[in-house]
């Protein structure tokens, strides 16, 4: 199947899950995870109407941003872990970052965001499963991180992101997401501009949309298996 056909299928699946969970039509945005994929694949997705793309690696993200600079309505999301020495490149190119989990990263991003660009949209990454191998703040640390991000002039706090550990079934997936959904609701009551809960990938779309996701991150189901060079 083509990238365009894959996108049609994923969009139909999201729409079906929105309806099944009594969510408004269009409540869940699709982020095409395009890491390791060639620029031609992003162009094919763009031609099929996709505008939001997610990249995990800084150098690759910057290169793709430059290659597709003529497509001015692309919305670029950086979704991978970020080292502080690479924060400047992200601040100068991306529209969103999903993986802010440390004060140093937030400060670097704000300091390096060009004044002629809109504020960088920020999601705080939450480590739901307490895995040492994964980035993210704990549930207890969300409030203080949110306060910091909200205080920085070149950042706009938009919400939360998480990548939970794999679960055996949908009921378990929903259970893991429950405290995050609650934390997101509490955050949205505190700040007017909180509107994004970035959870859900190919294996847990149903649980994520049932748990209030407003943005799902899908790669392989759109572009095929990953390319490693």
From TrEMBL:
InterPro entries: Ala_racemase_N (IPR001608), PLP-binding_barrel (IPR029066), PyrdxlP_homeostasis (IPR011078). GO terms for molecular function: pyridoxal phosphate binding. Its cofactor is pyridoxal 5'-phosphate. Signal peptide: none annotated. Residues 9-226 form the Alanine racemase N-terminal domain. The keyword Ribonucleoprotein does not apply. Pfam families: Ala_racemase_N. The keyword Zinc does not apply. Belongs to the pyridoxal phosphate-binding protein YggS/PROSC family. Pyridoxal 5'-phosphate (PLP)-binding protein, which is involved in PLP homeostasis. This is Pyridoxal phosphate homeostasis protein. It comes from Maribrevibacterium harenarium. The lineage of its organism: Bacteria, Pseudomonadati, Pseudomonadota, Gammaproteobacteria, Oceanospirillales.
